[in-house]
Amino acid sequence: MSNTQKKQSFIHGTMLLAIATAIVKVFGALYKIPLNAIINEEGFGYYSTAYDIYTVLLMISTAGLPVAMSRLISQANSLGHYRQMRKIYRVSRAIFLTLGLVGSVLMTVFCRQLAAFQKQPDAWAAIGALGPCCFLVCLMSTYRGFFQGQSNMFPTSISQIIEAVFKLVVGIVAAVLVKIYTGSVALAAGAAIFGVTMSCLASSVYLNSCFRKSYADLPDSPEDTIAAKDIAKCLLAIAIPITIGSAGLQILTVLDTKIYMTQLLGFLTQKQADVQRGIYSMAITILNMPCAFVTPITISAIPAITAQLTVGNTAAARATEESAARITALIAMPCAFGLTLLAQPVTALLGGYQGENLVLATRMMTILGIGVIFNPLVLLTNAIMQARGHERLPVINMFVGGGLKLILVYVLTGNPSIGIVGAAAANLMCYISITILNLFTLRRVFKDPPAILRNMIRAFAAAAVMGVFVFGAWKLLVMLLGADMNRIIACAVPILVGGIVYLLAAVKFKAITREDCLLLPKGDKIATFLHL
Fold it and tell me: Considering the chain, what is the average pLDDT of its residues?
């Protein structure tokens, strides 16, 4: 495969996953907005507590192994070593499923103890209902790692959409029925989580059907394969540092929750603290929406960069990294300005908040919105270091940032005048510090590092121009229609204005290059239309 084809494969893979992510986020909004109304802020807090614990176990099971599996399969695929690809899959599957089984047993058997540890004892039902997902997600990860190592993002994309549909239908129906028949918010939150478990089961069935055909179609190859124990060593050598970094940061997040809940209970009742925890969780959910669109870029970039480095083409790898930076910036920058400047109407619409809860949500979203600049940068720079074989470097940086976060959470949330808003500020400072450390590490370790910031500055400038028009449009609406206007109008009009202004500004500032456009389907026509 030529360098252009490899980069084109990266762009196409990113597009497929981005489209799937967009669809998933629409279904996610259709899921979480009514869910918040069904189980209210208190129940959403239980839901989020279950997810925090689940994510820790999931990170331990799947954070590093999919990357490691994707890299090894990409290397073997680049060299035409198909027997080796089969063996890598078999060894990876054994490791994945063992870890997944352990995670599922821990969450299911010790759900009450885990809920008590998080200072939310009523979250036990949600934690227990989510337990089987650990095993199912590990199973899905073996399939996805196999496909992604070959830069085939189609099965992953479709499986994500299947997950979103089942989660929406089963989760909402189950939550409503349980709330009606039991009246228990805690059990309703557990029923909503059950929809997630069923969605993973449906996705696993689909991925298995795709995998069996693809695995059978792999051609034979004559190479001698590496011993299973050596493959396992290679997988773990790549996976363990990534897992330590990802799971470690998530463990710090669980500790962060325990710290701020303990601090809040010093001056709030349990119910008040649970409500504020739920509002903060919703704000984090909104923050993660644009960040989720960066994950497809990193998933596609790692095997693409690995394949280029395997055949010794460092220039092509650097070009892919810089292309990933431009695409990341195109997504992240307008979202950061939009969420920061439209914090009030966005949280009012998506969270359904009003009164004091809306004021609190707005304060947190204004701070967290700035983080949309830095969170994607952390994801991108981590992926670059992982693809280049420096898995251990991001780990140190993430622990430094996580340690700073815990200190700030303890200090800030203990102040009644700051309260839960301190958790949002600590989150932002955590990602700012990791971003700075990662960029410094790239310059220090690599002889010819990708120009990350230089390839993002044009999108930042275009987003800044957009921000002026977005904020102006919202303020004009408030003057004309009043602060209690329809919430959809309050969001839709400024976003529409911002979208048009951003497109024009991005073209004017050349935030995307003609070379990037030519890698897209009908790219020559797109480039001509945009005058690139």
Answer: 82
